[in-house]
Structures are given as structure tokens and as C-alpha cells.
Design a protein that fits this description.
- The structure holds two protein chains of two kinds.
- By secondary structure, chain A is an alpha/beta fold.
- Chain A is built from 29 helices and eleven strands.
- In chain B, 36% of the residues are buried.
- The longest helix of chain B is centred in the last third of the chain and has 32 residues.
- By secondary structure, chain B is of the alpha/beta class.
- Chain B is built from 14 helices and twelve strands.
- Helix content of chain B is 40%, strand content 14%.
- The chains are: A alpha/beta, B alpha/beta.
- Chains A and B meet through loops of A and loops of B.
Amino acid sequence: MAGTKVQSEVPKTRQRPIVRLGVLLISHSLLVSVVCCTAGVLALLLLPVLAKNTYISENALMPGSASSMLSNQEVSEANKLIKDITSLYSKPSTAAIESRRLIAQYMSNLGAEVNYHKFHPQPNEFHPLHFFSSPDAGMIQENFSCASYGVNTVGVIRAPRGDGKEAIVLMTPYNSVNGDLQEALPLGIAYSVFSLLTQVTWLAKDIIWLVADSQYGEYAAVAAWLRDYHTPVFSDLSSLNTELCHDGSYILDLKENSNLERKISYEFRRSGTMAAALVLKVVYRNEVEDTLSIFAEASNGQMPNLDLINIVNYLAVHRQGYHVKVEKVWSLLNSKWLKILGEIFESLGKFVKSLNPDWKFGIPVAEYIEGTATLASSLYYQAIGVPTGPHGAFRDYQVDAITLEISPRVSFNNKDRRNDFLLQGGRLIEGVIRSVNNLLEKFHQSFFLYLLTSPSKFVSVGVYMIAFALLVAPLPVVAASLYAETLNLIPTSEKEKSAADDELGSVLRSWKWLNSAKRVFIVHLWGAMVSLFPYFISQIPNCTPTTNFHVWFLLSVFSLVILKWILGSPFSQLCGLQPQEEWAILKSVTISSFFIGLCLMSVINFATAEIGALLMVPTSLMAHPLKLDVRGGRFLRFSRAICNLVLGVISFPPATFFILKGMFEGYSGINAGDFWNWVESLWAWNSATYLYIGMVHLPCWVLCVHVLLHPC
Amino acid sequence: MYGSLGSRSPVMLMFLLLCTSIAFSASAETTLHTNNWAVLVCTSRFWFNYRHMANTLSLYRTVKRLGIPDERIILMLADDMACNARNKYPAQVFNNENHRLNLYGDNVEVDYRGYEVTIENFFRVLTGRHETAVPRSKRLLSDEGSHILLYMTGHGGDEFLKFQDSEELQSHDLADAVKQMKEKRRFKELLIMVDTCQAATLFSQLHSPGVLAIGSSKKGENSYSHHLDSDVGVSVVDRFTYYTLAFFEKLNMYDNASLSSLFTSYNPNLLMSTAYYRTDLYQRNLEEVPVTNFFGSVMETIHTDYAYKILSKKTFEKVKIKMPSEEPVDHNEQRSLQNSNVQDQTSDTKTEAQQCPFTSTWNSFNKKMEKIENIDSLVSYGLLIMLPLLLISTWLSRFWSSDETNGGFGGMSNRCK
């Protein structure tokens, strides 16, 4: 608006085109926001159509160019290991120690370097100051109990002619306490590959096989091992620490089998930087065909390089004949509106093709629905920022890792079938390792920022950014237009008065947004407090999640009231603001702060920002005092009030959670504690989404509700 | 040129000196084809470019088998696949999945390896501008009678060839280097063979006479690998090189297959690209030029039982090369080719005799010597003659060297340094 002032003073100088464009956009803010928001939602729905086929970007990888060397000999050895381990289950008291020793012995017999890694599981606690800090900083175990500890078994094959500066990690979680055949099968696959790799001459990177003790959770075991791998300790203090906890049975074991134990030490064995890590699991889920599920999401929506998924997908589909799956939102598959949308896109694609056969647009309905379901799940798992498997621990150290979950067609009890299963799985792992072995540098050639719409299709950052950009574009425009309107709103009578008034009045008026900014700041401060409450609430012993949730809710409301009482001074009366312009300026500042928050979040975790924008942008743009709408009595205004109420309910975080949960999992058995549990998982995994909800989303919602209920 | 002669006996030196000093005024085209050189360059690094090293080593083996000695081959390999940790067969390189032939055997002399293979070093080799410390074995010591084969393989594009994943050799650079070589009389004829994508574009700037160029693909075309060795896990040879090698495998040192038969042997369907050859700078008819003029060596080596006999035997008379009984594909054409070739050689001798008056007397002298049956006496006779000749030659060479520094050659070599 400064521009118009300049024009009035010096009429001959024309404004710059960019300024004129800005003024044009601001003056048509309603149209801009409607068009942009619609286009943003539409662009998001179009993403499955715009998805590209994946391709292997790095030349060095050459997956599948070498024929598999894994033979029945290795498989029969692996079968022997499985048989030995399953026979140990009959004596549950010693099974844990015995199976560990058995695996170590098998590894050692192959000529690998073997060591045990002892770790103490860390309880999931809320560390308010540990967001974004690296996991090893200050996470020194202080008061662990000697009774609970896990032991990882680690085998290292040194590359015969490699430089020992790089390694590939193969990880199999193994619960030594209550194991069954399903637990032993990944060990069998990994062992068959491991025994082959001890013989080959083509290794350029060391191979580390980590049998993670998963009795305290798979993630904790891997994270502990990775932490120790990356923080070498040079004093004897730590070893002393672990020695203190040696219980009697251990020393007995040492004496018994000293020959073997001398080879297998507690000394930590390391190799170089990790090029890639594969987590191998086997489940039995009554599949129609042999299925391989890929899990890739790590903390805060970080993904491994797309090339890693590509080579696994390529080898699994084209070499081993697996059916490859990634996570999907299953309930979306049957949704009617998606089907209709898919049909529209398909017919649109046909129409475009009839115009010009070279234009490829549109995909079949079934493919669209599948793509949308996969995209939604990809977006959701990236947005909550919680890793979908133990591979997440690797990503914290910038190691590309994925979890492979193999589910066979028939049960494992069939002996012949089991051999085939081991051979198939082993060949897949061998192929991936050989391909990664060819790598010269870290994975860097392909995408890190992408959403999957199927195992072989992806949407890259350049495409999905558009949807987000369109959604947030109206925010600054509307904020500016609201502010501009309040400047022009000053009634003429007041204008005449102010002409005679001193300068103070005009200064105050030009700074009147400061009052609203203060209010917005207070609410954001409150948001920070709300995010800190769970730390104290979780200290209360013996509480169910439901009571925790209620306590949290009450505390939040109470603190908001107190804050308003203390800090909310009637400043607005001081500078003579009309209530009419007060809500407009408040909305303008709210929208600006929300815009900044969203943009910051999109850098940290794009998916969170996208979902947050979907929920909150319409709410914040529509917000309008209900009193004014109801008073008017016209239908349009009334419908706006209803829209505002609905949006206001939907975008309240707990309400959003319960609505979505009810939609996808059914409304039966929902209780208030679920939300507490969900939030607990967020902070336990140091997810930035938690910070977003507490410090951006919730304050914005409160401010919007404040605008809705504004007494004007 | 004088450098290469320096290793021989003073007699020869003096003799040739006289001949060449007379013949020098004649243009380079009439210069005799004296020796063969090969510069074989693999420009790409990394394990997945295994096939480029295999290409180069296969060609190295072929030209060596066809008679170019190691000291006249400059082999540049940008990476060492044989010792790569990913190589399933340590210290071996194969160009075929049957693994019958190890290209990285005992007698492979790599002159420039690894990070030494740069565009700078490549140009230094071509133009002969080395630092003083560079050993002779790493220099291209060709002369104006040399036929040079320049083979390059790697990743190329429109008018460029990538070196080491960091530099690019452009067609202008190559043309400039060739022009410098021509001016410095470093070759008589030059065959440039390039196996890259869009190889033909690399020749577009060449202007120097006597240059023949062949590339694996035209502009806009890719050159493909021939097959994948699933045991080693990489592609082991490129199509163009594979079919070039297939052509040469049928030949031996004495075969007279012409260059045109090589050039027409490339089948675009098998190559999956169109082999392109540029002949407008080359004077001779391709059908009359045997491939061994570039891929082999025409140095006439005469086997003698006795070490000293070589002195007396050394003449410009061409030794008749025995033709093999079985001849390659085109019988009639080959025969005519051979005939013309023989004619060429005899006419060469004739002009040489005219140009050099000493030759005839020398020949008759030779014949006389051959008549002497007692070899011991021949030796003593020869040694006795050598003494005064040695004196004369040293005197002459001193005279000549002072002459050179003042004279035309000196000025020229100064300019080119």
C-alpha cells in the first residue's frame, strides 16, 4: 500500500510491474485463495498420475549383471544352523545364551571375526532438549540395571583386497528368549549369504552381519550397536563398566568353552563407514505369492536413497520373482470417491491422448487407487516422523538402510519348500550386496526426497512441492490484504479528528499490529508450554494414558486462561482500535506466523507440513467472527459460519486424530488414551512433528478459534 | 628421426645421413614408411567401465601380435581393473565371457596408468613436448616416416571425449594436436580409431593431410557394449572393438587385408551403430593399403645367423614377404592388392637408388662381400674397414651437428619446441 501512496504523491512515476502484480493479487485475495487452495488439493490428488517410473540412476550399481553364486551347499549349511537353533528352544532356560554361542560359533567357523556386543536398553523417555541432537550426544548410560541387558552378536568379513574403509551391514533381529522358526529363518538366509561371502574374491567392502538381540526391541539393539560403533572409547572405563555386570553364569561359560570364547571377544570390532544396511525379517502372513515388503521411512520423514529401493525392487521382481509391496492405506482401496476421481482422470487421459498421441497422461483407475493408497501411507509415515523399522537407526548416522520383510507363500514346515525359500531370499540379498559392493561412493545419484506411489513409481520433490506451494501461497496474500483493509477502514469522521490530532495517534495506528503480534506471541509461548507438559506428566507414576491425556488437556486450558489473565492487557483500547479491525489484524498476524511456521516445517519434514497445510490452511483462511456472520442472517454468511465451525473442529489435533483413526480403523474401541499413546510415540522418537503440533498447529488453531469467537 | 637412428652403428648413420640429407627436400609424402607406432588410450575410470580397459588391452594384444614392438606402443590405461578389489579374477582381464584369453598377462607394459592419463599427458605424448625427466619408453619417438595408430575408447559425446571423469578432450584439441604433429613431422600417416558414443563428431575439426579416422558411431548414436560377463559382473567389450578384433583374429602378420576390407567389415546391425570413417585427408586408396600398415609393423627385420652380418646386409632392398597359402575373403581383390603393393615397393627402391648414388656402389660391394666364403676373414675385413669409416663418420657428424644448429633444421626444431 506504500505503492499507492507514492503514486498519489508523484503521479508520473509508474510502479514496477512486480509491485503492481502484488497489489493486484492482494486486491483479489479471495479469488486467489480459492483458486490456489483448490489447485493445491487437486495437485495433491494428481500426484499418482504424475508419478514417474523408478530407474537406477547410479551407473556403478549394475544390479543383476552378475549371476548368483549362492548354491545348495550354502543353503544346506544354513538349514543345519536353523535346525540347531530350533532344537535349543526345547530348553528355554539356556536357550538365549546357547543360541548366541551357536551363532557365534557358526560365524567363527566360516573365518569371520566375531564379537559380542553388550548393551543396556534405554527406556523411552521424553527428552525435551534432545530434539534434533545426534543420538550419541549426552546419551551416556548412567543408571542402568545389571539385570537387563542384551547381547548382539556381530560377525565381520574383511574384504580380501579391499581397503577396509567401507562396509555393508546385514542385520537380522533375533529374539533369543522366545524364539520360534520364524525368528530363525532370517538367520538362515543371512548365514547362507555370509558363508558364500567368506569365499568370494570380489568383495571391495567389508561385510558386517549383526544379529541384534531384539528382546528389548529391534530398534534399541541396533541403535545401541550403532552408537558404540560410531563413538570409539579409548579408555578402559567402559569395559570396566560392563565387566561389573558379569553375572556368575557368564564366567562359568567362559571357562567351559574357553577355546571358542578366546576367539570371540567382547572387544568391539569395527569396519569402515557403512555404505548401506539391509534389515532382514521373515513373517508368515498367508500370502498368495512370495511377497517382499519394503519399509524405508526413517525418523522425521528421512528416506534412504531411492537407488537402494530400486536395486532391491529390480532384483526381487526381475531375478527372484517376488511380489514387491510397500505400505498402503488399505481402507482407501475401497473408497468410492477415489474410484470416481480415478475414472475422471482416466477419461481425461484418454481425451488428452486423442488430442496428441505423444502426450502421456492418465493411468487406469485401479492403478490410480493403488497409487493413492500407497502415496497416502508414504505421506503419513513420513509425516509422523517415526521410523517404520530398525532401519531408522541407521538413517540417524546417514547410512542408507531399508527393512526387507519376506513372507512366503506356503508355511515353512515343508522341508523342500524351505530350501527353495532360503535360496531365493539368499540370492536376493547376495545380489543386493554385490550391487552395493560395486558402488564407489556413497549413494548420492538418486533422490532422497520422494514419495512412493508403488515400489517402482515415485514422485520426486520437484513435483510434490507444487501442491504444497499452491496451498501456502494464499497465506501471505490474505494476510497482506487483511492488513491493507484495516488501514483503509478508518472511518472518515475519525480521519478528520486525527488531522487535528497529534502525531502520536498516527504512529500508534501504524503500529497497531503490535498488539495482535503480542497476543500471537503469547499463544505460541503457551504452545511451547503445552509441548513441555508431557515431560512432567510422564513423571507421575501409575497413570493410565487416558488420565494422562485428561491431565494434559486440563493443564493446557488452565495455563491458557492464566496466561491470558496475566499478559492479556487491554492495550487495544489504548490505541483506539475498533473491534472490527482488531480481529482482522489478529487474523492477519496469525496467518503470517502460521505461514512462517509451515515453511520452516516443510524444510524439516515436508510431509508434516503438507498434511498440516491441508488441515489448517482452509481453517485459518476462512476464520471470521461467528457473531458477525450470524447477525447478518444471509444464507452465504450462515454457511460460512457453519463451514468455520466444522473446520474448527476438524483441525483441532486430537479431533483430527480421532476422526482419522475412526475412518481408517473403525470407531469401536477408541478412547482418549490413544491420542496420548500416539503423542508419546512421537516424542519418544524425537519426531519434529510433535514440535510442529505443539508450537505451530495448536497455537494457530487457538488463534483461529479466538477469531471465530471474537466479540465484535 | 635422428634420435632413432642414433642407436645404430656409425656406418649406418653416415650412410643414411647422406641419403636423407639429399632426400630431405622432397615432401613428406615421398618419405619412406620407416616404422609403426601405436598410441592406445583408455580414458575412463571406475569398475563399471571395465570394458574400456578390456577394449584397449585387446587392441594392444592385437597390434603386438601383428608386429609392433612394445617400445613403440604407448599404452595409457586410466584405471587398473585387474587389481580392482571387485575383480573376481585378481590380476586378470578378459574381453570375453569364455575367459580363454587373459589380456593382462606377463608382457603388458602400461606406459601411463591411473591418474597419469590426463589430457595434458596425452597431448605431451602426441606432440612430443615432455619434461626432460620423462623416460624414452613413455615418449612417442616417431618420425616423418612413421605410421601411427591412435586408438581411444571411453565415454564421448558431441565433439568431446571424457578423460578420467573430470576432463574433456574436444575435437578442436585433437585436431590441434594432430596439426602440431604434422608440422613437427612426427608422422607420415595417422589412423585415429575411436570407440565412444558419437565418435564421428570427434573428427570434425581435423585438417591435417595423411590422417585417416574411423569412429564407432555417428552423431546422435550410442556405441554399445557387446556382451555382459555374468561371472565378473560387468560388460567386458564394446561392439565396435569386438568386431574389429574379430576381423584381426583371422589375420596374421603377413596377411594383406586392406583397410577398406576392415572398414566394410562393420555391420551396422551387429554394431547397433554406424561405423563412420573419414578419408578425405588421406591420399592413398584404401583398397591398396594393407591393415598391417597401421596395425602391424612393416619394419624389415632380417634373420641372420651371425651378429655382424647385419651391417653388411642392411640395405633398402625390400625383403620379399612370403604370402600365406590361405588368403582371406576376397581372393581376386587381395591378389591385385598384393601385386600393387610389390610394385610400390620396387618403385620405392628405384627412386631411392636414383636419389642416393652411394647405394649402387654399396650394393655391388655387398655382393662382393657375400661371395667371400670364409666368414672369419669377412669379419676381420669388415672390422678393418670400419676403423676408417668410424673416423670419417665422427668427423662428419661433428661437422653436421654444428651445421644443424646453424642451419634450417635447427631453426625448425627450435620453433617447434
